[in-house]
Automatic annotation (TrEMBL):
Keywords: Hydrolase, Magnesium, Multifunctional enzyme, Nucleotidyltransferase, Repeat, Transferase. This is Bifunctional uridylyltransferase/uridylyl-removing enzyme. Belongs to the GlnD family. It comes from Undibacterium nitidum. It catalyses: [protein-PII]-L-tyrosine + UTP = [protein-PII]-uridylyl-L-tyrosine + diphosphate; [protein-PII]-uridylyl-L-tyrosine + H2O = [protein-PII]-L-tyrosine + UMP + H(+). Modifies, by uridylylation and deuridylylation, the PII regulatory proteins (GlnB and homologs), in response to the nitrogen status of the cell that GlnD senses through the glutamine level. Under low glutamine levels, catalyzes the conversion of the PII proteins and UTP to PII-UMP and PPi, while under higher glutamine levels, GlnD hydrolyzes PII-UMP to PII and UMP (deuridylylation). Thus, controls uridylylation state and activity of the PII proteins, and plays an important role in the regulation of nitrogen metabolism. GO terms for molecular function: [protein-PII] uridylyltransferase activity; phosphoric diester hydrolase activity. Residues 1-319 are annotated as: Uridylyltransferase. One of its GO terms (biological process) is regulation of nitrogen utilization. Pfam families: GlnD_UR_UTase, HD, NTP_transf_2. InterPro entries: ACT-like_dom_sf, ACT_dom, HD/PDEase_dom, HD_domain, NT_sf, PII_UdlTrfase/GS_AdlTrfase, Polymerase_NTP_transf_dom, UTase/UR. The keyword Glycoprotein does not apply.
């Protein structure tokens, strides 16, 4: 046998034996920190020994990076190393380095390696946040200490804590979207899922980069968290590390997911046993979910406090009422003991969040106080008529319900107010389609129902959006959603048991008899429609007739259909498909005909708008069929997003120009009585949105609203509401100017100009907002929803449009909202850059920079 091979095999056996001793010691006495450090020390020693045998030049260094650089090594984790050079290697050194890497693989290490000079490290770190993060925890193993010091000095000098924080926060949000923004999937990734190890590491990374501390104790010493919170974080971090170690050992490979196959085995290593009512794995997973929930809560507090240090804002409070203030867009308690003095404020604060669009969350101080006061919600609190009224008002709010309910669950307020809901927090569902715990599934169903009321989501399920637009009192559906699975895990039919809970809730909260009956019906029958649609023959008239007898009338049918769609969609991203959707829709339409109602092939609101538009067209002498060709090119989303007067006006000016080879620009005084309405119609072109915004920016026009639409045959039909003080006095001349100039600009496709740095208003300067960017795929995975929030200023929309253009992001629809001095914009977009995680983070970072200017 070749000597080199024999040596590698001997080294491999030695390394494996040493690692096994450490693992066996852990099995005897499980101490996560000890195992992680011992495995790291073992690999350090073996790498140093191999390094010495190669006799590399003295200026070469072997550096541990990533988790290995942090001094932690899980049983089957990658061993990430950097071979650091002073200068580019010659041929001889290259061959020697290749031999080293081969040996490291041969001895059984899962090596992740890079070979770079200090200059190359700095270039890569500047271009890639992953590399920058890995180098943050770099540690010298062997070789040149001077070379390593040079790297650390240059790295520290180049570190920009604010930019690093921003990039890591975007990366965190991107990762959370990947995991559906919940730690409560039934097979969570203990490393990557929200509330897991990676979230804890992000905190320590940004704190280390900002020189705020390297440990929970140091962060507590800086006042960023309390000593108790630091202890909780350390304890939960240790618990997650322990689980991950056991996963690796049990799977005999790198495995970070608590998959069903391993859950019971892992539970057994913790001493959990299966009982008559619950599996051992359920005890384990509920502990995991509660830990992840605590981490998520504490991370919110810590990130907010670190952001306040890195991006200081003037602390100027505006009173909301005697108990609460607004501080930089967050709600803040006016008194440290407000919840103790007035426990009902624990519901009031969530009601305020749903009522005030400018409030985006709670301050760290408020979150902490709410968390500690939650135990004050008792039977007396729940029987208080004012508290019951407040909770019902939350469900009846026109906005923010999903966010508020999730926040109430995260802070344990929801479970305290609804004790039966608390029983299902973190409760697993052992079936083939639910991907979330019961509580998260319920909140997902509520979210899905809410989306049917929001025009920016109308493209996802247009038929459901049509029905919801006509449904009276949609909050009744939210109550049904809250209770439809609340009795899961009890001994008995959860639909029947849930009816009793729902009935009591409705009675206690003074809900009308008709609405109470509907809620009870929906809880009892929430599985019926999917069972009929998927398991029975819809061509059999008796099947439809029997189902019609169950639902009795159109309101019950529509409510059950909407809840069923949302329930199926809320089980797992993989469960819903177009086939199921068609079955349910067919059942709905056939049953409606049996009930004697009108088959809703189009939404009544849609019909009303079209009829109103046609009446308006006839008043101005347009022929009866003049609208047909244009309307055939427009989908439901267009009609849902435009008023009847807009539809009539655009039809009047475009019906004879639908194939126009040149841009068509038409303006009129806006029907709302302020500003001009500008419609642009032309064959869609690259950067069109940016070009239009560029033109308005050059004219110093403020954009109050924009509706972007693309027709079926590829024409852009965009409408803008623009304003400028001079409009009132000479609007005719301005209309003529815009129609001529903008059409000319779009025909020439001139290069985009650099966005102007618009000035903030005095109010915005005194009450600045931290801009936010949120990017997530829509439910169909076809487009992305881009949401931005920032202080308003001239040229802001063009700045955003320029970034979209730079990254070749295609814009399909846009909802531009200006709320006083605040903008809340939602864009439906797609583009290749959005499917590359690194490019996506760069895009979001640049967008944030544009919003901060």
């Amino acid at each position: 046998m070749n000597t080199a091979i024999a040596n590698a095999l001997a080294f491999k056996a030695k390394l494996k034996a040493e690692q096994q001793v450490i693992i066996e010691a852990f099995k005897e006495k499980p101490r996560a920190e000890v195992l992680l450090k011992d495995l790291c020390r073992c690999v350090d020693q073996n790498l140093s020994e191999i390094w010495k045998s190669f006799k590399f030049p003295k200026e070469v260094s072997l550096v541990a990076v990533g988790g290995y650089g942090r001094g932690e090594l899980f049983p089957y984790s990658d061993v990430d190393v950097l071979i650091l050079l002073a200068t580019a290697p010659d041929k001889e050194l290259k061959e020697k380095l290749e031999s080293l890497v081969q040996v490291l693989w041969d001895i059984g290490l899962d090596i992740g390696h890079s070979i770079r000079t200090v200059d190359e490290c700095m270039i890569e770190a500047a271009a890639d946040i992953t590399v920058k993060t890995a180098l943050l925890e770099a540690r010298l193993i062997a070789g040149s200490r001077n070379n390593f010091r040079d790297l650390k000095a240059r790295y520290d000098e180049a570190m920009h804590p604010q930019q690093f924080f921003q990039a890591k926060l975007l990366e965190l949000h991107q990762r959370h979207v990947k995991y559906e923004d919940t730690p409560y999937s039934l097979e969570p990734n203990c490393k990557e899922s929200p509330g897991g190890l990676r979230d804890l590491q992000v905190i320590l990374w940004v704190a280390k980069a900002a020189k705020l501390g390297d440990s929970w104790a140091e962060l507590a010493a800086r006042g960023l968290i309390t000593a108790t919170e630091a202890h909780q974080l350390k304890r939960n971090e240790r618990a997650f590390k322990d689980i991950r170690i056991r996963l690796h050992i049990q799977a005999k490979r790198r495995e970070d997911r608590l998959v069903f196959d391993l859950q019971n085995a892992i539970a057994a290593t913790f001493g959990f046993e299966t009982t008559e009512s619950r599996r051992a794995s359920e005890y384990l997973m509920q502990r995991y979910y509660w830990a992840a929930k605590a981490v998520t809560q504490l991370n919110t507090i810590l990130l907010q406090n670190i952001e306040a240090v890195l991006f200081p804002l003037p602390h100027q409070a505006q009173a909301i009422n005697e108990r609460f203030n607004e501080v930089n867009g967050l709600i803040d308690i006016a008194d440290e003991e407000v919840f103790e003095k007035k426990p009902s404020a624990m519901l009031e604060i969530f009601l305020l969040l749903s009522q005030h669009a400018n409030l985006k969350g709670m301050t760290a101080k408020t979150l902490r106080a709410l968390w500690h006061a939650r135990n004050l919600i008792d039977a007396e609190f729940r029987h208080d008529i004012f508290n019951r009224a407040a909770f019902l008002q939350i469900l009846q709010s026109p906005r923010g319900i999903t966010h508020v309910l999730r926040s109430m669950n995260q802070t344990s307020i929801l479970g305290r107010y609804l004790p039966n809901f608390r029983r299902i927090v973190g409760q697993m569902q052992h079936d083939l389609f639910h991907a979330y715990t019961v509580d998260q599934h319920i909140l997902m169903v509520v979210r899905n129902l809410r989306r049917f009321t929001m025009t920016e989501h109308a493209h996802e399920y247009p038929f459901c959006s049509q029905l919801m637009a006509n449904f009276n009192q949609p909050w009744v559906l939210y109550i049904a959603a809250l209770f439809h699975d609340i009795a899961k895990g009890r001994n008995g039919d959860h639909s029947t048991l849930g009816m009793a809970d729902a009935r009591k809730f409705c009675y206690d909260h003074g809900i009308s008899r008709d609405n109470t009956e509907l809620v009870i019906f929906l809880v009892q029958q929430h599985l019926t429609m999917s069972q009929v649609a998927q398991k029975q023959d819809l061509s059999d008239p008796d099947v439809i007739q029997n189902f019609a007898k169950i639902v009795k009338d159109e309101r019950h049918l529509t409510a059950l259909y909407l809840l069923t769609v949302c329930d199926i969609r809320g089980t797992s991203p993989k469960v819903w498909n177009a086939w199921k959707g068609k079955l349910l829709e067919d059942l709905y339409k056939m049953t409606l005909r049996v009930l004697g109602g009108e088959a809703p092939s189009t939404d009544r609101e849609l019909k009303n708008r079209q009829e109103e538009a046609l009446k308006a067209l006839r008043l101005v002498g347009i022929e009866n069929d003049a609208h047909i060709k244009l309307w055939e090119q427009l989908d439901i989303v267009y009609f849902l997003r435009h008023d009847a007067s807009d539809i009539a006006w655009q039809t009047r000016v475009l019906h004879d120009k639908i194939n126009s080879p040149t841009p068509v620009v038409k303006c009129r005084l806006a029907p709302i009585g302020e500003g001009l309405q500008v419609t642009v119609y032309l064959r869609d072109q690259a950067d069109l949105f940016a070009r239009i915004c560029n033109y308005f920016d050059g004219k110093n026009f403020g954009i109050l609203d924009a509706k972007i639409h693309t027709t079926k045959d590829g024409y852009a039909l965009d409408t803008f509401l623009v304003t400028e003080p001079a409009f009132a006095s000479n609007y005719r001349d301005i209309i003529t100017l815009i129609e001529h100039e903008l059409a000319e600009v779009l025909a020439k496709q001139s290069p985009l100009t650099t966005p102007n740095q618009g000035r903030l208003s005095r109010l915005s300067r005194n009450f600045p907002l931290v801009p936010t960017v949120e990017l997530r795929p829509d439910d169909k995975g076809q487009y992305f929803l881009l949401s931005i929030s920032a202080n308003d200023k001239n040229g802001l929309l063009y700045s955003v449009a320029s970034v979209l253009a730079k990254y070749k992001i295609n814009l399909h629809t846009a909802k531009i909202m200006t709320l006083g001095e605040r903008v809340e914009d939602v864009f439906l977009v797609d583009g290749a850059a959005l499917h590359n995680p690194k490019n996506q983070i760069q895009f979001e970072s640049e967008l944030l920079d544009a919003l901060r200017i």
